[in-house]
Amino acid sequence: MIGRILLQLAILLLFAPLLLGVITKTKALFAGRVGPPLLQPYFDLFRLWRKGFVISRTTTWVFLAGPVVGLVVPLLAAMLIPFGGLGAPISFSGDLILFVYLFGLARFFTAAAALDTGSSFEGMGAAREVTFACLAEPTVLFALLVLARGAGSLALGDLLGPQLAAQWHGNGGASLGLILVCLFVVLLVENSRIPFDDPNTHLELTMIHEVMVLDHSGPAFGMILYGAAMKLLVLGALLVRVALPVQTGSLLLDLLVFLAGLLGLAVLIGVVESTMARLKLPRVPQVLVGTTLLSIFALVLVLR
Amino acid sequence: MLWLLLGLLLIAGSGIPGLFLPRDGQGGERIACGLLLTGVLICTWPLIGIFCGQSLLLDAHWAVPGGRFVLELDAISAAFVAPLLLVVATGACYSLGYWPQHRHPGNGRKLRLFYGLIAGAMLLLLTARNSLLFLLAWETMALSGYFLITTEDEKAEARRAGYIYLIATHSGTLALFGLFALLAPGGGSGIWPAAGSLPAAGSAVFLLALFGFGMKAGLMPLHVWLPGAHAAAPSHASALLSGVMIKTGIYGLVRLTSFFAAIPPWWGWTVLLLGAVSGILGVALALAQHDIKRLLAYHSVENIGIIALGLGLALLGRSYGQPELVLLGLSGCLLHVANHGLFKSLLFLGAGSMIHATGSREIGHFGGLLGRQRWTGLLFLGGAVAISGLPPFNGFVSEWLIYLGAFQTLAVSGSPLPGALFAAPALALIGGLALACFVKVFGLSFLGTARSEAAAHAQEAPPVMLWPMALLLLACAGIGLLPGSLRPLLERAAQAWTGALPLPPLAPQLAPLTVIGGAGWLLVALLLLVGWWLRRRSAAAPRQCGTWGCGYPLSTPRMQYSASSFADGLVRLFRFVLGSERHGGRVAGLFPERAELAGHTPDPVLDRGLTPLFSGLARLLYRLRRGIQNGLVASYLFYIALTVVVLLTLLSR
């Protein structure tokens, strides 16, 4: 139990920034550039770690609470998700709701920290973040319902358990395919990637996540970046597990498949970001309503 | 049980001594508060007995045609009584600082009299086991509520809210008269039957109950009185009305449905559907409000919707014979009743503290209050996190139970029951919208820079107002972190609701409450640890620089995101039902003149439905009357002749 928790934590803490590096490298390759080194996110985090703070005089303690919650929540949420064939370290009936609501808590404090600066830009980012999250939430629930129906359980550890492979071959295959699309869209929205948000620019009026953290600096900003990377890994783990329900029984092999799946996911995100333009903002709710309908369809398919 | 009766009398009469004391002295309010607290303490004693597994009954002779004077305190009543006592006690202490007698000589004594009276009436209502006694307490509560709403009766807004409330509550009471007449249990004596002892009832009984109790609870199309009433009353009275009084409607529905052995499926579907509608539209309407108390009032509509989702699931569980669904649905429903009582009161008291400091109810006039109202801000933040249903607070636990109930229907196939699955995504949408709304309220009121002169010079509330709020937050955190301790009470309440039907225990494999509590502790510990580290690390950081304005150096507080702009995206999405009005806001040309934007969201049922309908009806009847009563003697003679002819033809047959 303790060993498994430590292993999971080690993967989470050490592997998460690499995903960002892979995405950046993929985008650079598509653009015909060399791009920053693969380990650049680690260097960035290390540099931010040693820096001092610049804190606006309008802010209160809530400004620093945002990064804290943003870092702690993925740590705790990762304990509920099985990393590939490894079982989830903590698993109990109904933990899927805890998983969803933990990220709600992070959203609450990140948005509050943005409003704390009193800047209109950051207020705008916060407003957009909570707006799009509202629309993404029903999709997640429908997807989880589909998985729960297949597993006959309400624990994420069982939902993403060994029965997934059989489900792909059986009646539930079509539904799993549909929710895979939905979960990928939600992953892009939740992690502020193109086509919903642009993680590279800070100052255009169209941004969401980056504009919320505009005023953070030094270790606080490092915590935000690190937390975001871990969130990408945790949500990605869910997606990879649904897409690659391989379970050989060998710990090392399962882990390698899982890590390879995550890297593949990062490359896929990089490809999407290189080949697509950012959506016009009014289109984002339409896409999210579309995925909700798609996930309802998936649920109806497994319920019939 | 006699202790409870003594406490009840002390609470109900707590405002009476003050009537004989001077208008502007402090004696009256202190005596009232002291009596009320004593009463609450005395009532706590039997309540502890209920938590230990007892059930209390008082059966006495009553020289009224209604039969006997029967009071009973069981687990269902206890789930409603416990938050009532806490909210009443904290509100009474809070009012010493919020509504002191010497600053409100005109209405302070009235407020205290009816505050005590409504609390006593609710206590009686929740324990009464006799239709007549129940209706007596119901009416006392309704009328005391009216006087609380119209405390400031010199304001036209309060008078209008009180008037609408009076119409609504009496239409509801009328339905209840019909309901109890139809029910006439126990051969007309008015004593309530035991749970599960009556055969299935006709649809008239259910529809009357849904109208009468739903009106009080504020279920969506019947919520018309609620926003105005909660906005008009003083904050601690709003806390009592919104946190506890509207739950008496839920209590009525829960108690009534417990009488019957068989529940038709459409009862459950109706409650579930109304719950989803109330939940989603209530929170959408809340998002569009700029008045903090109206906003909180609409959140009551939302939370009543969540409670109704739980009750609907439990009813469906009984119709389709799913004991797990009954247990989870009803536990979620009752726990959310208690939770909403706690965090909604906390939020109303926090709002009162802000209004006290700035003299305004508009969110647009606050801003940056956390710097000057450090403790109010912290306590309000706790309430905001709790009402958004986020861990580690209590709102999460009850919503989680309702989710588990909805997920429970997954295992069933071959019946329409899996349709109830849609309660889960509906709840997720409600949760997301509530989060957006409370980020807006907390962020725009307490964070950023002050938007008005009053907010810039706000003062922290006195300790007598802060301690009650701290107590409520402590209760919220307590339920969130130790939910396992409530398991026996919830099990017994569900058992008392179904009567003889055996229910499974609320076992860890069904709902691992202890594990959820443990996860909450872990979350708190990690947050404190990392927070402490970051605080230490940033202690030496200079805090003189301004916020980065993207190159624009002259930013003013008015450039911050406002309440309307924050909610604009979501309000636009819901415009097809909300019908928000926008005036102005467009700028034209390269060098635009001054432009203004104003937004207003009227209540879709009251302002767009009922008010035009009834004023149209009144105009029509006025015209009819003018035609009939036209002042011509000839017409009157004609009416008499007509009447005589009609009578003759009828009688000669």
**What topology, given as strand order, has the largest sheet of chain B?**
1-2
Form type of chain A:
globular
Along the chain, the helix and strand elements of chain B come as: HHHEEHHHHHHHHHHHHHHHHHHHHEEHH
What's the total number of strands of chain B?
Answer: 4
* Radius of gyration from the alpha-carbon trace of chain A, in angstroms: 19 Å
Question: Shape of chain B from CA axes?
Answer: globular
Strand content of chain B: under 5%
Radius of gyration of chain B: 26 Å
> Low-confidence segments of chain A, ≥5 residues, pLDDT <50?
none
Q: How many helices of chain A? A: 12
Low-pLDDT runs of 5+ residues of chain B are none
How would you explain this protein's 3D organization?
Chain A has helices at 2-31, 40-50, 62-78, 95-116, 120-151, 156-159, 163-169, 173-190, 209-212, 218-243, 251-275, 283-303. The longest helix of chain A has 32 residues, at 120-151. In chain A, helix 3 packs parallel to helix 10 and helix 8 (173-190) packs antiparallel against helix 12. Chain A is globular and about 60 Å long. Chain A starts with a helix and ends with a helix. By secondary structure, chain A is mainly α. Chain B is mostly helical. Helix content of chain B is 66%, strand content 4%. Chain B has 25 helices and four strands. In chain B, strand 1 (56-64) and strand 2 form a beta hairpin. The radius of gyration of chain B is 26 Å and the shape is globular.
